[in-house]
Design brief:
about 160 residues; alpha+beta; about 15% strand; two-stranded antiparallel sheet; globular; 5 helices; about 40% helix; 4 strands
Length: about 160
Amino acid sequence: VGSPEDVHRLFRAGVGARHSRDTSMNLQSSRSHVLFVMKIHCISLSTGAQHTGKLLLVDLAGSERVKRSEVTGDGLKETIEINRSLSALGDVVGAIARGDGHVPYRNHELTQLLQDSLGGSAKTLVFVNLSPSASSREESAMSLQFAQRVKGVVNRHARSLA
């Protein structure tokens, strides 16, 4: 891309392509994850030093219990796949937090895409959205448990100078 406007245009196109559907638990429930990757390469005009950075913004679709969401057909397939990807992410986060020798990044495409942002030298910030509804108490508790596991991940902050 050549300008901030190009970045905004691409970002809006990605968000616009996100699929959602109504479920018994949530109007306009996100049925897909959104990943926005911006790689930045810069060269110092005075020294010629080169630096590369990557910004990864991720909006994960929320986990919904199949029984409570009452989805069927394609909606059921979407829910199962969302839950499978979030479970794989939870497995990776748990393995990193425990310091396991093997981290199962290859168990899902989502965790493969996020690999260099989880447990590496990346700076990672996670926001967890909770529902204020009493009927979503179990889902909110599960989200908080996931956030607690994420908190146990310690990234190695390394900086290489060119």
